[in-house]
Specification:
Layout lengths: L12 H13 L3 H8 L8 H15 L6 H11 L6 H11 L6 H30 L4 H16 L10 H17 L12 H7 L7 E6 L5 H14 L4 E6 L4 H13 L3 H6 L4 H15 L2 E5 L6 H9 L6 E5 L15 H22 L3 E6 L20 H7 L2 E7 H4 L8 E9 L6 E7 L4 E4 L9
Parallel strand pairs: 1-5, 1-6, 2-3, 2-4, 4-5
Antiparallel strand pairs: 6-7, 7-8, 8-9
Helix pairs in contact: 1-3, 1-5, 1-6, 3-4, 6-7, 10-11, 11-13, 14-15, 15-16
């Protein structure tokens, strides 16, 4: 289309050739470039084929120079009659390898401009075709621009070589972390051992009957991520106000009973502890939205605009709407709405590349059983949630049902689904005065 209209597609053939030439002249340039540029950022198909071949050779530890490259191009079936002359001319025309970063920057900038033009064309097409309401078109437009801003591809086929490069990056990151879990720690080590923490693009469902502590464990995790791991956390509360949430966070951080905070009956030491906790809490990167009518689209739009985001917490699923059209549904339409919400949350986690914790109510089915521990089928409108979630954790406290229980503060985090590995039951301590959870083998003073 651009060629037909006489427009020049943004690209720099010379910069692309200079990047490849630098990699062939100086092997030390290769890891520098591979970390910075992706194959699909090259405009020329010939240059893209050469770059993918160089990446493959580097990944397999093969010797790289013009001769070995030409041989490998033949093996991969991307060799033509003038390929050999082209490779040698690229090497000859490269002025110096010391400027490889500048060459690579030019290639990357031109690729971004091309994608921006493609996104603009797509948005224009959606507008003039009338393919949806204004809100849905705006949502689609924001997604495309966010994908460009975050350097990620959306809605495009990628060669496996590009994906392999991403996997190698993840493997290197995991290897460098040593014994640390790959995801964000929850502050509950026994739970982390099962789930491997909160990992990017995961949808984590925490489900329980009312009163079991869904909000409490979510705030536990959010506080630990923000305070101890220095992560940026966005909390969307459809049930509690900002002030109620911060009161709970202060109670946990200061280790002052929540009841004392609510009544104002505080000792001099507790005032000092709260002041210290308030200062520490103010320095965290926690953002709270208490709009009770927030939708998944609203959440996605707000989170896309954040410069830094590591974790999303939503309390809770059944109160949410998939759009701004209200929530007066029949049972059948409600099931469909929850299916839509569940799917949209998984898409949001994947698009933003952050873990999303979403709390969910369980049905009353467990109340009629002798063993009231949650199972997957207890999830209300469970089919879609069960399918979309990467991890499902059910909370259970025997002491809630039986006041004479041997250990009334024993809590169980039952991992009902785990795409990364095993399912298991993790025992936790319920600390009612702080509406908090802790590990069984540590005291609550060690949790923060």
């Amino acid at each position: 289309m651009d060629e037909l209209l006489g427009r020049s597609v943004p690209h720099s053939e010379r910069a692309e050739q200079a990047v490849i030439g630098s990699m062939l002249i100086d092997p030390e340039c290769i890891p520098v470039v591979l970390e910075f540029l992706k194959a699909d950022e090259f405009y020329s198909q010939v240059n893209r084929d050469i770059y993918e071949t160089l990446y493959s050779m580097f990944a397999y530890g093969l010797t790289i120079d013009a001769v070995t490259l030409i041989d490998r191009l033949k093996v991969r079936g991307v060799y033509s009659d003038n390929t050999e002359d082209y490779v040698y001319s690229v090497v000859a025309q490269t002025p110096t390898s010391s400027n490889v970063k500048e060459y690579a920057n030019i290639v990357k900038e031109r690729a971004l401009l091309r994608r921006l033009g493609e996104a603009a064309d797509n948005i224009r097409e959606m507008v003039y075709e009338g393919s949806g309401e204004a809100d849905s078109v705006l949502e689609a437009a924001e997604k495309q621009i966010y994908a460009l801003r975050s350097g990620r591809n959306i809605g495009r086929l990628l060669p496996v070589s590009s994906v392999v490069q991403n996997v190698f990056d993840q493997l290197n990151e995991a290897a460098e972390s040593g014994d640390k879990i790959p995801g964000i720690p929850t502050g509950l080590p026994d739970l982390d051992n099962v789930t491997l923490g909160l990992n990017k693009s995961e949808l984590i469902i925490i489900a329980a009957r009312p009163g079991m502590g869904k909000t409490s464990i979510a705030l536990n995790i959010a506080l630990h991520a923000a305070m101890n791991e220095k992560k940026s956390v966005a909390i969307f509360s459809l049930e509690m106000s900002r002030e109620q949430l911060v009161t709970r966070l202060l109670s946990k951080a200061a280790l002052v009973p929540a009841k004392n905070l609510l009544t104002g009956h505080l000792t001099e030491q507790q005032w000092k502890d709260i002041a210290s906790a308030a200062q520490a809490l103010s320095e965290t990167d926690i953002l709270i939205d208490d709009n009770s009518s927030v939708t998944v689209a609203d959440i996605s739009a707000q989170c896309r605009r954040l410069k830094k985001l590591d974790l999303i917490v939503i309390d809770y699923l059944q109160l949410m709407g998939s759009s701004g059209s209200g929530r007066s549904w029949s049972n059948e339409s409600r099931t469909q709405a929850v299916s839509d919400i569940s799917r949209m949350m998984k898409i949001t986690a994947k698009e933003l590349n952050v873990p999303v914790i979403c709390l969910s109510q369980l049905s009353r089915a467990s109340e009629g059983r002798q063993d009231k521990r949650p199972v997957l089928s207890d999830l209300r409108e469970s089919g879609a949630i069960e399918q979309d979630a990467d991890v499902v954790i059910g909370l259970y406290r025997q002491g809630y049902h039986d006041k004479d229980a041997e250990d009334p503060n024993l809590a169980e985090a039952i991992v009902l689904k785990n795409r990364k590995g095993r399912t298991d039951t993790v025992e936790l301590n319920w600390i009612p005065e702080y509406t908090s959870f802790g590990s069984r083998d540590t005291t609550h003073e060690d949790d923060y």
